Amino acid sequence: MHDIVLVDDDPDIRMLARMAFELDGHDVVAAANGLAGLEVLRETVAGGGRPVVVLDVQMPDIDGWEVLGHIRADRSLDAVPVVMCTVRAGALDRARGYGHGADAYEAKPFDLEQLLGTVRRLASMEVERLLARRALLWTEAEA
Hints:
Layout: E1 4-7, H1 11-23, E2 28-31, H2 34-46, E3 52-55, H3 64-73, E4 82-86, H4 91-99, E5 104-107, H5 112-124, H6 127-142
Parallel strand pairs: 1-2, 1-3, 3-4, 4-5
């Protein structure tokens, strides 16, 4: 069962992040675009998993904002934590991410230890706490 779904169109980022996650003991599946990422995520959740999604924004087919929208619109995926990991890291981008249901936001170039810590924290968080935290982030993003 995959516990991280990594969605990024940059092969170097995918390789680096995947290696770091695997060395930290995670089972990772990587997707090179948003559509493939959604497919893998749905398969993992249907199989009983609750992975953390690490999601880039700028991708060629559908962007990370649209992927996040699909995840949050699908009730079967609502408990899945999503970390936006992108160069789009300005205040407006972060507010947009949290406003659309992101659970964390990491700027590229990312610090591997910080990203690992974020993923560990979200992976271990109970669903009710995650949803309450997400609602708080959404409220703050709207302000």
